[in-house]
Design goal:
With 247 residues, this protein is of the alpha/beta class. The protein is 31% helix and 19% strand.
């Protein structure tokens, strides 16, 4: 586990994005292709901007998956992660991706999980960009997370702290508008990634960072599972790292 602490969220995102770019280029150089996972949300703004601006990445050799999507939310809604990734990443690339595997939360959720599972099983992930929620979730695997399922994508219920975070970040006008369920990449599938880059800015996530890094691995702190990954990089800022005992 590698930990980098930046002065602020902007510097954090630049460092995470730069490392991501180098790892993607390395995968393409070694294998001819790269398979990546992208996260969404406020924590990823600068990381994705830096990645889009990176030089010398042949994006036509890259297949992209993402972590999660609300069930029943239209792609036109500002909280849609398909919309987020299309506008903040896919449409900004100088050349199209080889394939963008976007989660369709408006279709039959069980069938969509099977479709996604079959696709990602054929594309071993080289680099995964993830974040940590205020409740410690990884993707939308809220506590207590399922550490045991072998299914690559699963249907999950969103707990109240998770839904309140989405409201407080301004994605929804009222709490009752936040969906109750989502399709999420499973913990085991995330952990299959060759490299994991976890970006976590802001003081509001300081407790989740401490629980994920310093507590024993537990499904009550879902992101704590990252401690057991051989190639995980945590990018924090001073605010999100403020409760760590060893900084």
């Amino acid at each position: 586990m590698n930990i980098s602490i930046a002065d602020d969220a902007k510097s954090l995102g630049e460092k995470a994005g730069s490392l991501s770019a180098e790892l993607i280029k390395k995968a393409i150089a070694e294998k001819g292709t790269a398979n990546i996972i992208l996260a969404t949300g406020a924590s990823q703004f600068t990381t994705l901007q830096t990645l889009v601006a990176a030089q010398d990445i042949n994006w036509s050799k890259v297949t992209m998956f993402h972590l999660d999507e609300y069930i029943g939310l239209p792609v036109t809604h500002k909280a849609s992660f398909r919309k987020y990734l299309t506008e903040r990443f896919i449409d900004l690339l100088p050349v199209p991706l080889q394939y963008a595997c976007l989660i369709n939360g408006e279709s039959d959720a069980e069938a969509e999980c099977k479709r996604l599972g079959a696709l990602i099983s054929d594309h071993p992930i080289d680099v995964a960009l993830v974040g940590i929620g205020e409740n410690g979730h990884l993707a939308f695997n809220d506590p207590p997370a399922d550490f045991d399922t072998d299914e690559p994508y699963i249907i999950v219920n969103l707990d109240e702290p998770c839904r309140r975070q989405q409201l407080n970040e301004g994605w929804f006008p009222a709490f009752e508008d936040v969906p109750l369920q989502a399709i999420s990449m499973s913990i085991k599938q995330i952990m299959k990634s060759g490299m994991i880059i976890c970006s976590v800015p802001d003081e509001r996530k300081a407790a989740a960072v401490r629980n994920s890094i310093e507590n024993p691995v537990s499904n009550l702190f879902p992101a704590s599972i990252l401690q057991s990954h051989p190639n995980c990089y945590f990018f924090l800022d001073k605010a999100s790292a403020s409760l760590l005992t060893n900084r």
